[in-house]
């Protein structure tokens, strides 16, 4: 019995070992059946799954691209509201009151802060601003205007006809010392009610409505100020309240030295402006003491725009755009007709014939129009058949001979009774005027005429111009949209007692006087054309000046400014006629 026990144990262990092996084999077969075989089946469908995932991905990408294309189709990059506009000008602030503003900086601020009864549109036509327009009586003496409803000042007070009455009666008051006074003499102003204003003129004047673009003043703020103190009031430099497109926020001064001082004037959009709320978020005007300081600031990228430079930057900055805004003005050489060699009409005619404005205009570097008479091309009354006769050398020689001037073969100079044909020409010192006079100097020298050019600083030249201390002067005059050029060519304006003495040629011609006075007192356009014809003929015959070209107002911007004027403007400040619609920002906008 004892001997059989080990055998039994061995058999028992053997059976257990076999059972373990059977379990292991069964587990292996089960793992193979449940994992490897399923893995093989998964591998079989992997390509199928990958294809479906890839297709789904491609569909998603295609949908995204399609949506992007649809967005690009239905959306366009368009100007949008907002942004800070920073413009630089030359000259510090002195008086922004519209009845006193004369400097470039002051007129700019006056235009932004104040609003007139009328303004100019993009076609340089007079349209309503604070007023809905105007009506004029059959005799041309009475003008009536009705204010737009709901007008307010920047401080929220209502703007009424009482403010209009106060403004222009202040201009008329000699104690106020407004430079506009001469234009308002003899005019009766009344306000029949809070919304109506009437102006009665002593005589018909076709150009009178242009005076109604002057900014209106708030009576509730200035009505108690003594007229003699108005010009020095804080209102003019520190606390101006108007009804223009922008409101005064404040003025900051940088620099203690006047030579390098800079003023920053912050302006905010006025929501209730008669022309609509400005689309710019803010307007900052940088006023510099010198042109070089303005150029430097613009070149360094500190400004959105630089206004009124006498010449473009030598090295344009990145994204710079140059806007040459042609002015309704004329650049002339005015011959002083009352003394010296230029008192002879034949000599003046010869100088005109010896001149060739075409290459002078070509050298300017910008596109403009030639000036060929007292009126501008395209202006009411201008007629090409009365254009001055230039670029005719043979005619010039003949006229000089008829006037007694003979060419001396020794030095190629014109002489008469032993006296050389020589005179001086004065102009303000700018690169443009320097080039123009150099060209004229060469053209006239070919026929034996010698001119002595004198270029002066703006300050010195202002004195020269006021006193008429010249033989001839190269100068630009503002003519405007209306062809009333009485101030520049009527005999009365050559008198030393004249308010501004703008007849720079001191030309006196009774035929021209009659035409000037007849043309400005007629409202009918065709009748004005007829009246101005004798002026054009007399001007051509007497040659009191040499017409050259319409000057430009140079305006540089960094990038695109949407809404800038594209046509002619009457003066630099007129670039702001539609400033409420300027934009500098762009974004993609869905189209309707």
Helix content: 25-40%
Task: List the uncertain runs.
Answer: none
Helix tally equals: 13
Overall average residue pLDDT: 91
Hey, roughly how much beta strand do the residues contain? 15-25%
Strand order of the largest sheet: 9-10-11-2-12-22-13
C-alpha Rg (nearest Å): 40 Å
| Level-2 CATH architecture of the largest domain | 3-Layer(aba) Sandwich
Q: At the first level of CATH, what is the class of the largest domain?
A: Alpha Beta
Topology of this protein?
Elements (H helix, E strand, L loop, with lengths): L4 H70 E6 L3 E7 L13 H10 L4 E3 L5 E3 L6 E2 L5 E5 L14 H12 L15 E6 L2 E5 L18 H4 L23 E9 L7 E8 L12 E7 L2 H9 L5 E3 L12 E7 L2 E7 L9 H9 L3 H6 L30 H10 L3 E3 L4 E4 L2 E2 L1 E7 L2 H15 L4 E7 L1 H10 L4 E7 L7 H4 L20 H11 L4 H18 L2 E5 L2 E7 L26 E6 L2
Features:
592 residues; alpha+beta; D-Maltodextrin-Binding Protein, domain 2; Dipeptide-binding Protein, domain 3; 2 domains; 7-stranded mixed sheet; 5-stranded mixed sheet; 13 helices
């Amino acid at each position: 019995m004892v001997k059989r026990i080990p055998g039994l144990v061995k058999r028992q262990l053997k059976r257990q070992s076999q059972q373990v092996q059977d379990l292991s084999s069964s587990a292996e077969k089960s793992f193979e059946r449940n994992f490897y075989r399923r893995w093989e089946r998964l591998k079989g469908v992997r390509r199928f799954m990958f294809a479906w995932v890839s297709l789904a991905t491609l569909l998603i990408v295609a949908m995204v691209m399609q949506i992007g294309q649809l967005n690009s189709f239905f959306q366009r990059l368009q100007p949008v509201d907002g942004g800070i506009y920073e413009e630089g000008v030359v000259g510090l602030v002195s008086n922004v009151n519209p009845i006193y503003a004369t400097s470039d900086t002051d007129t700019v601020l006056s235009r932004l802060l104040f609003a007139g009864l009328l303004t100019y549109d993009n076609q340089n036509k007079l349209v309503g601003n604070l007023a809905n327009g105007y009506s004029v009586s059959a005799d041309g003496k009475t003008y009536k205007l009705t204010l737009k409803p709901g007008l307010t000042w920047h401080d929220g007070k209502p703007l009424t006809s009482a403010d209009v009455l106060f403004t222009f009666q202040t201009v008329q008051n000699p104690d106020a010392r407004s430079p506009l006074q001469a234009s308002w003499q003899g005019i009766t102003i009344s306000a029949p009610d809070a919304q109506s204003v009437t102006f009665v003129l002593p005589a018909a004047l076709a150009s009178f409505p242009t005076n109604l673009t002057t900014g209106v003043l708030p009576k509730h703020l200035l009505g108690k100020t003594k007229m003699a103190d108005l010009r020095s009031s804080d209102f003019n430099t520190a606390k101006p309240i108007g009804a223009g497109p922008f409101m005064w926020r404040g003025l900051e001064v940088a620099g203690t030295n006047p030579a390098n001082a800079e003023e920053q004037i912050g302006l905010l959009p006025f929501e209730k402006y008669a022309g609509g709320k400005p689309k710019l978020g803010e307007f900052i005007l940088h006023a510099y003491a010198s042109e070089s300081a303005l150029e430097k600031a613009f070149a360094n990228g500190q400004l959105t725009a630089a206004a009124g430079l006498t010449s473009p930057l030598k090295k344009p900055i990145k994204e710079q755009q140059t806007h040459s805004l042609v002015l309704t003005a004329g650049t002339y050489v005015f011959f002083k007709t009352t003394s010296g060699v230029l008192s002879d009409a034949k000599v003046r005619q010869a100088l005109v014939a010896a001149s060739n404005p075409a290459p002078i205009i070509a050298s300017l570097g910008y596109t403009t129009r030639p000036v060929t008479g007292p009126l501008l091309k395209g202006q009411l009354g201008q007629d090409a058949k009365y254009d001055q006769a230039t670029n005719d050398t043979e005619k010039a020689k003949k006229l000089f001979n008829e006037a007694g001037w003979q060419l001396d073969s020794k030095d190629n100079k014109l002489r008469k009774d032993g006296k050389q044909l020589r005179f001086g020409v004065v102009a303000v010192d700018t690169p443009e005027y320097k080039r123009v006079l150099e060209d004229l100097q060469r053209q006239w020298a070919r026929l034996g005429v010698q001119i002595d050019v004198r270029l002066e600083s703006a300050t010195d030249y202002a004195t020269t111009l006021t006193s008429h201390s010249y033989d001839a002067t190269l100068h630009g005059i503002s003519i405007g949209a209306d062809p009333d050029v009485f101030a520049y060519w009527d005999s009365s304006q050559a008198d030393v007692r004249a308010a501004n003495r703008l007849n720079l040629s001191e030309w006196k011609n009774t035929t021209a006087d009659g035409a000037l006075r007849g043309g400005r007192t007629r409202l009918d356009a065709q009748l004005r054309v007829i009246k101005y014809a004798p002026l054009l003929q007399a001007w051509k015959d007497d040659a009191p000046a040499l017409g050259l070209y319409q000057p430009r107002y140079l305006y540089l911007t960094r990038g695109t400014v949407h809404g800038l004027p594209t046509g002619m403007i009457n003066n630099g400040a007129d670039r702001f006629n539609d400033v409420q619609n300027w934009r500098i920002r762009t974004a993609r906008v869905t189209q309707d």
